[in-house]
């Protein structure tokens, strides 16, 4: 297929927990990308922060993530008795997983310190209102934005530190999940592909950028289908082509 530099990877979760992990990973990356903001784009950071807090408050993130990491640890432990495996590398990875599990156990409740922060709570309440964070609505926020960049950066670092354990856990877990599936080439007719009963939690679909297509996935971990749609197709109508070449990894 085409050079990897021209490829786009789409990821689709096939269960609710994986959907949550992908959303958390996305929001944390948004926070990291926008943490050095100016007075004109500060809301990009605070919108992502508010959404992350909402996910954390509505789900048992620590318990569910600990279970999934423990499951990954058990899968890796099986390889310790396989001949030819780099046991030193594997033991280092298992040690890292054990360390993260310990940190998740003893860490304070996720987002608790931010829920007690008066400024963040004031901003969260106003974000649902169009234009609700104007200077006359939130004079305390306006004053905070006038502080020096160093002052604001230090405050933001403290806020983000409360999610450092979650960030490390999600990053390592998703790395292991993605590495569990290898890309294989497929060709589907009529822009439609149905899986041959391969159980998966995450689909990774790689397709050439110049095709101008994106996948629509339906189904669950045991059975799913993929339909490819053109970016400029009105009302998501099927594109007119005989076949679509793509790569798929079941993770």
UniProtKB/TrEMBL annotation:
Q: Which InterPro entries match?
A: ZapD (IPR009777), ZapD_C (IPR027462), ZapD_sf (IPR036268)
Can you say where in the cell this protein is located?
Cytoplasm
Q: What keywords were assigned to this record? A: Cell cycle, Cell division, Cytoplasm, Septation
Respond yes or no to whether keyword Phosphoprotein is given for this record: no
| SUPFAM superfamilies according to UniProt | YacF-like (SSF160950)
User: Which biological process terms from the Gene Ontology are attached to this UniProt entry?
Assistant: cell division
| One Pfam family here | ZapD
The record describes the protein's role as: Cell division factor that enhances FtsZ-ring assembly. Directly interacts with FtsZ and promotes bundling of FtsZ protofilaments, with a reduction in FtsZ GTPase activity.
Q: How does it assemble?
A: Interacts with FtsZ.
Protein family per UniProt: Belongs to the ZapD family.
**In its UniProt entry, what is this protein called?**
Cell division protein ZapD
The protein's organism comes out as: Orbus sasakiae
């Amino acid at each position: 297929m085409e050079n990897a530099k021209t490829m786009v990877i789409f990821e689709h979760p096939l269960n609710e927990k994986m959907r949550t992990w992908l959303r958390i990973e996305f929001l944390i990356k948004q926070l990291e990308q926008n943490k050095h903001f100016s007075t004109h784009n500060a809301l990009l950071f605070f919108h992502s922060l508010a959404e992350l807090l909402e996910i954390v408050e509505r789900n048992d993130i620590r318990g569910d993530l600990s279970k999934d990491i423990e499951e990954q640890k058990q899968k890796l432990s099986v390889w310790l008795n396989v001949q030819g495996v780099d046991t030193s590398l594997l033991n280092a990875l298992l040690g890292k997983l054990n360390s993260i599990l310990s940190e998740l156990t003893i860490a304070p409740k996720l987002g608790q310190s931010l829920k007690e922060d008066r400024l963040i709570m004031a901003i969260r309440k106003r974000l649902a209102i169009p234009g609700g964070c104007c200077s006359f609505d939130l004079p305390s926020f306006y004053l905070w934005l006038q502080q020096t960049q160093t002052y604001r950066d230090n405050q933001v670092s403290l806020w983000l530190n409360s999610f450092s354990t979650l960030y490390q856990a999600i990053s390592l877990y998703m790395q292991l999940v993605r590495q569990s599936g290898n890309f294989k080439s497929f060709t589907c007719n009529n822009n439609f592909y149905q899986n041959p009963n391969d159980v998966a939690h995450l689909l990774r679909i790689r397709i050439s950028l110049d095709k101008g297509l994106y996948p629509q996935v339906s189904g669950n971990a045991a059975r799913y289908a993929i339909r490819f749609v053109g970016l400029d197709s009105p009302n998501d109508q099927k594109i007119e082509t005989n076949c679509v070449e793509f790569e798929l990894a079941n993770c």
